[in-house]
Amino acid sequence: MNLAVRRRAAARMVALDRSLEALPLFRLSDSAEDAMINYATDNGGRWRVLPAPGERLPGTFDQDVYVELSRRFHDADQPHDGAVTFTLHSFLRSIDRRVDGRTYDQLRSALGRLERTTLDSSDAYWSATAGGYFSGQFTVLSAVSIERRRYPDREQLALFAAVPAAEPGVARVVFHPIVRDNLAARHVVTLSLARYRALPSPVARRLYRLIEIARANGMVSWRVTLERLRDMLPLVQKYPSHLQRVLQPAHVMLVEAGLVRDAGFRQHRREWHAEYVLATRGADAARDVP
Q1: pTM (two decimals)
Q2: Of 33, 40, 27, 3, whose CA–CA distance to 228 is shortest?
Q3: N or C: which end of the chain has fewer CB within 10 A?
Q4: What is the mean pLDDT of the chain?
Q5: Interval 7-43: pLDDT, tens
Q6: Measured between alpha carbons, how far is 151 from 163 in angstroms, rounded to an integer?
Q7: How many domains does the chain have?
Q8: pLDDT tens across 134-166, in order?
Q9: CA proximity to 60, closest of 263, 206, 228
Q10: Which phi and psi (to 5°) does residue 164 adopt?
Q11: DSSP per-residue codes, 87-116
Q12: What does the alpha-carbon distance between residue 211 and residue 217 come to, in Å, rounded to a whole number?
């Protein structure tokens, strides 16, 4: 692979906070009404996701917004103040969403949830700069502001078909210091943005993020109990048969996308596991290059 090809492939990658990726944050069922996420980590820590009063937990749309925000932060060379600025119109275009009043409202709501949803860590979130587990509360975004654009000759906009008639404005968001400290310390996992967006299922997208943690940990295969995987995603289904019905279509998507060589279920004694054989990163990069 020559230098130009490598640069094009790198431009399609997004770096995500590795500690945050390992913890459940986005509910994968928009019909779920869970009041909070409560998760016990392997090291004995506790992780809770607490929505703001009167709001719901971050969901599937918020997951895509978070990845795109991380992409923009990465492409901006991780500004020291943690700020990223963009128009709502361009953001929706970037994530392949219809641009209309409904999606503008969805985006505003998602940004607000990422600012107001409390992440409560008791020795659950690893801080790379501190070299240990963090106990305390934080949010993904520490500030969000959205200002409507003002045009001095707004009545003239109707003369230009290419100009949106109701441009909703410019957003400025700031990543929380604890998140951007991990990013600056390169405590990250990297995703192929093209692969992520090509996965049509929120469950497949979340599984892809978890698989990249296994890859970052040097694994060539990953085996996890269905009960544990349910909590990591998280999913609301409880029984192995129900979980397999939800996961199986996502497994097919991951294999067809070349992100895993194999994915399936195996029962060991009385406990069901999900098993994944990871594809090589070299193969992933090659498939992303046109």
Answers
A1: 0.88
A2: 40
A3: C
A4: 89
A5: 444 458 999 999 999 999 999 975 555 689 999 999 9
A6: 11
A7: 1
A8: 999 999 999 999 998 655 444 444 443 444 444
A9: 206
A10: -60, 135
A11: EHHHHHHHTT---SHHHHHHHHHHHHHHHH
A12: 10
Query: Whose CA is closest to 100, among 160, 165, 159?
Result: 165
**Residue 282 pLDDT exceeds 80:** no
How is residue 113 written in tokens?
């949830």
Q: What range defines the domain where residue 112 resides?
A: 3-288
Q: Distance of CA 174 to CAs 27, 111, 114, 180, 182, Å?
A: 23, 11, 10, 10, 15
Concatenated DSSP letters for 34-99? -S-EEEE-TTS-EEEEEPPTT-PPP-HHHHHHHHHHHHHHHHTT--TT-EEEEEHHHHHHHTT---
Cα gap 250→47, rounded to integer Å: 26
For residues 271 and 50, give the distance between their C-alpha atoms in angstroms, rounded to a whole number: 31
First to last CA, the chain: 12
Q: Both tokens of residue 36? A: 């909070």
